[in-house]
Write a structure and sequence with these properties.
Oligomer: single chain
Number of helices: 12
Largest sheet: 4 strands, mixed
Low-confidence stretches: none
Strand order of the largest sheet: 4-5-7-6
Radius of gyration: 22 Å
Number of strands: 12
Length: 256
């Protein structure tokens, strides 16, 4: 157990970090093999390990710390970031990781780790607890951009309405880097409905409107037929009474 205390301080660590501690690759391979066999540590995936508690045998690093070690550019994002900040209504057994470096989805200790390619470069916090995570403004925009693939619209709105405050300037900077008309359109619509709740400025909504283009789009894919509503200002079609059914109120044609 010569290195167990150091591994426990690392929490989750790479093979390269272990080599720096132990001295040579050959010795490191042998020690890691022995420690895994004795259940002092566990192999998360190739080249990545986590120390195990001597009390209950569980990893000493949580899923967010482990996910943050999956690559140099890894950051918790989307619904997983909402969960990290305490704004998600559901505990998930899947962690979404924004990472420039590719990795295949895998499972460790009952948690699935999924990669998504980052859409922008700004808005990542590297925290003292070892977690790299998108800041709340980028989390909101990433989730609006990808809600159909990641969490669904209802959960998205529930997460957003749990946030106490948002920085408009940050959101505008991130929207500019995204440079997607549809994202401006969806963001403008959502925050026009939540304008009073967040104190969103008219200028923010006007920028979203100006940058959203003139195309009419479906807020939710597959929305067809007569059971729909159309927001005249934001040019968005959605299922009938969609916002009202999710939030219990609101005017479908809310404008600035």
């Amino acid at each position: 157990m010569k290195y167990y205390e150091e591994f426990s301080k690392f929490g989750c660590f790479s093979f390269e970090e272990a080599v720096k501690l132990i001295g040579t690759e050959k010795a490191t391979l042998q020690i890691l093999h022995d420690y895994v066999k004795k259940e002092y540590i566990a192999k998360v995936r190739k080249g990545l390990y986590v120390a195990l508690s001597m009390v209950d045998g569980e990893p000493v690093a949580n899923k967010f710390v482990i996910a943050s070690k999956l690559s140099d550019s890894a950051a918790i994002s989307h619904h997983s970031a909402f969960e990290y900040y305490g704004y998600a209504n559901q505990v998930s057994y899947e962690v979404t990781v924004s990472s420039k470096s590719r990795f295949n989805p895998f499972e460790f200790n009952g948690i699935s780790y999924e990669r998504t390619a980052p859409s922008i470069s700004q808005g990542v916090n590297r925290n003292a607890d070892g977690v790299s995570v998108t800041d709340i403004e980028r989390t909101v925009l990433d989730s609006i951009n990808d809600f159909e693939n990641n969490m669904g619209f209802e959960e998205l709105i529930q997460c957003i309405t749990s946030i106490p405050i948002l920085n408009e300037d940050k959101m505008l900077r991130y929207l500019e880097e995204y440079n997607k008309c549809f994202l401006y359109q969806k963001t403008g619509y959502i925050f026009s409905m939540l304008q009073n709740e967040f104190g969103i400025s008219d200028s923010f909504l006007k920028t979203c409107k100006m940058k959203s283009g003139s195309s009419s789009r479906y807020l939710v894919k597959g929305t067809r037929g007569g059971q729909t509503d159309f927001n005249n200002y934001w040019h968005l079609t959605m299922p009938k009474n969609y916002w009202q059914n999710i939030t219990g109120g609101g005017d479908i044609n809310a404008i600035i």
